[in-house]
Amino acid sequence: MEPGLNHILVISAALFFIGVFGFFTRRNLVTMLMSIELVLNSVNLNFIAFNKYVWPNKMDGLFFAIFVIAIAAAEAAVAIAIIINLYRSHHSIDVENAEEMKF
């Protein structure tokens, strides 16, 4: 028994709203980064689900998903560099303490 498009879209919507909720309620930069990754993974799940169920003979959804994965990797690398710089200057990764990024 295979899950249908509606089941996958419900799971994707749940991942999206968990990510948005986590981004807006947390003040730790690492958990905010993880929340952004949840949102991007829900988008990937939508791309692949629509590719499989709506256009099964095309590969567009898979290519978009791979593109989003590459963008997410670059975003994570830049965000981790910002987090390390913030920790070096303020000895905390709390968003409330991040007023400026100078040493």
Can you tag this structure with a few keywords?
single chain; 103 residues; mainly alpha; 3 helices; 0% strand; elongated
Tally of helical segments: 3
Q: Kindly report how far apart the N and C termini lie.
A: 57 Å
Mean pLDDT: 87
Largest sheet properties: none
Instruction: Assign the structural class, choosing from mainly alpha, mainly beta, alpha/beta, alpha+beta, or little secondary structure.
Output: mainly alpha
Q: Report the principal-axis shape.
A: elongated
The level of helicity is: over 70%
Q: Which residues sit in consecutive blocks of at least 5 with pLDDT less than 50? A: none
Radius of gyration using CA atoms only: 17 Å
Secondary-structure element sequence?
HHH
Description:
With 103 residues, this protein is mainly alpha-helical. The chain has helices at residues 5-25, 29-53, 60-90. The longest helix is centred in the last third of the chain and has 31 residues, at 60-90. The mean pLDDT is 87.
What can be said about this structure in brief?
The protein has helices at residues 5-25, 29-53, 60-90. It is built from three helices and no strands.
Question: Which SSEs are present, and which pair or pack?
Answer:
Layout: H1 5-25, H2 29-53, H3 60-90
Helix pairs in contact: 1-2, 2-3
